[in-house]
Amino acid sequence: MEREEWVFYALITALLALAAYIYLFDSGPDVDPFVLTVQSSVSQMRLPHETAVYRSRVVPHGARGLLTGLAIGGGSGGRMGPTRDGTIEDLWALALKAKISTFSFGQLESISPQQLSSAVESLGGLISRNSANTVVVALPNSAESLICLFAGALHGVQVVFAPMNDELDKYVRFCKATVVVTTGELAELLIQNTNVGTIVFTGKRQLQGPHLVPWDHAISNPKQAGDALKKAIDPPMAMVYSSGEKIVLTTVSNQNIVSAVASQLKALPIKEQWNNKDTVVSCTTELSNHTIVHNVAALAVGAHLVLPESTSSVNLFLLVSTIKPTILVTDDETSLSLAARSERLKALHLVQLQIALNTLRLGKLPTHSYIIRDFASVRLVHSGALQDEPALSDKDANLIRALTGARLIHSLYVPLCLSPIAQTNIYDYRAGEPGVINFGAPMACLELKLKDHGLYQASERKGQIWIQGPAVTEEPQWVNTGLIALFGPDGALKIHS
């Protein structure tokens, strides 16, 4: 037997021995199995043609109300006092204490509190001088989009985030915006198709025109007379998008933002919660509910937030290997590409993968798997599924857990709610039924129920999802999401892929 062949079989034997050890001697699952069989608090009563009302076990029925905000304040001198939910101004104060960086072309650049404050004051002054009441922002997930949120809202102008596509001119006309912040490429289209008063553009393009302002110039102008911060507007932001032939504008209030952020932070067990020692990499180019909530959550806990630069593409593996984050925020499209790495593994890594998957079946995370060694620093992955887009299956989620040794939380979003409507339990590695995606319990800022719809009967825990709560943009009423789902006996929301 050749030496290479002997080494290969020796490694296989060692790995099989490790697998046997895991089966026979390792401590039990990561969480008591009972926790996964009772994931929601379910109301005792239900209306005809509806299911009972489902809540997070963080806010059970009869014990307390839904989570409404960040509970800021609380008295002084060690004594408890009244708290408040918080506003965009409170989030701005937290942002000035947090650490924010951008990643571009392999380089990490920090944004100091002074630079952040100067950029927000300068851009906010420009916006307020040239805008009646709204500014449309069509930028990717980036430091620039975060600066725009604070610059507009703190200067009394609502920030409307729009998709980055060739329909931007329609969105601008719909919003009656006189100021737009976008990329150089889209700015060229706007010049041809609209009469916008001021266009601030990012990137390296050399555009000339009386209404065109380069980003670097917009954030570096000295403070002018009358540029003092106005009373922050509420609602501070909105999102505009197309739904079939219609254009829809969804306004997002202070209450929506702070309740969504608070629920995201409280959804995790204490030992898994985000903290100021974490480095959070927001690794997706698309700006969405998912990225906004997690970016602001990172600021709220004082974590180091790393955002991609608006003019460069996002390379997941370069970001992770260079920055070595502890938390990764991504979307399902990027997560699916990560899961696909399992198809390119060599023989030894395939054996490791099977051992890791078997460990997950036992209810334990293979935390020292590191089949993809670049992810050794990552302890938690947040992947977001957006309505009507391809979603990560439970099988794919377990492949990512096995490949990286990181925990993964899968969240489901709809346009009418800033918070995810549900997300998987951090310790839930169960494979579930083929073709069915497990999205776990509702968030602590929401209530969910299903109503009869066509052939789907609420009496069988199947139907159309309706939601209400402080994170819903049309609260306090029940809102139809348009999604068909079912609640399992475990209280977890499940959707057919």
UniProtKB/TrEMBL annotation:
Transmembrane segments: 6-24
Keywords attached to this entry: Membrane, Transmembrane, Transmembrane helix
GO MF entry, a single one: long-chain fatty acid-CoA ligase activity
One GO CC annotation: endoplasmic reticulum
Signal peptide: none
Record protein name field: ARAD1D49104p
AMP-dependent synthetase/ligase domain sequence ranges: 109-473
Family matches, as Gene3D superfamilies: N-terminal domain of ligase-like
SUPFAM superfamilies recorded: Acetyl-CoA synthetase-like
Keyword rRNA-binding: no
